[in-house]
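Checklist before submission:
- one chain only
- standard amino acids only
- sequence pasted in full

Submission:
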Amino acid sequence: MTSTSADLDSDALLETARIVAEAVPADALDGVRASLEYLHYADRAVRPDVLRDVAPCDLSMTEAENIVYQLAIEGILDDDHLNVEALRSAFVGARLLTAQTEPPENTIVATIPYDDPALDPGMFEPLHGNLLNLIRSADDDLVLMSPFLSERAYERLRPALHTATDNGASITLITRSLTYGETEYNRGFARAVHDDARLAPHTTTYEYIDDETWTTFHAKIVIADGQCAYLGTANLTHTGLGDNLELGVIFRDNTASRITALVENLRQSEFFHEVTASSDSFRRS
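Returned file contents:
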């Protein structure tokens, strides 16, 4: 007694679908399935060379062998019997697999010092321009995480930040050295954001610092809508965006969601402090 597709192990059906999808173009799947059924009902041998003769597409001998032998191994089709339900289920699975879109491409980006003749600025995509495009693309949430900030970098980013908030995005700014330390470096950027009427209502600022051990962070991250994320060496400073040798990746695959999850987990950390700005200082909420 032959098995039905319901009796077959799901892994067996999936493996059969995968083998078929790798061998047969999407527009020929129905024809190849019909060819296999024809071989059975016409009482012809189900062999790789015969399948190649009747199939409506070019199959290599290896591809034909993979299909025929897989169907026989799983008890779906051979010279003696045909499990129509299982065969059709395998080809439906193959169609679903071939319909899957290619994963989005990630982009390596860099800041290349123009005064170093040994380095070609065309080696990688420009970090600055791609980062601006990433920021502009945010419709819901934009995360800017950088241990160092500069007011000159804010001037470079401001038009893109305006586009993001005009789109409806809320901004999470994560940095350090706002409520402690002597440097004004990060404070200039954060104050400029909070003084900007188009950004301030949509921006929440945080520090990440352990006040006892001074454990903090050195990651540089920009995330748009949890779907696209920059991770690299460049701080949101004018030197990081335009002068230093910096390298990073803009992720558009599921890596972006993993980076987003890390940032969301930070919100539960005791080291994560919300900060508000006044006219002359910053304080923790």
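Reviewer check: Residues 14 and 150 are 53 Å apart (CA to CA).
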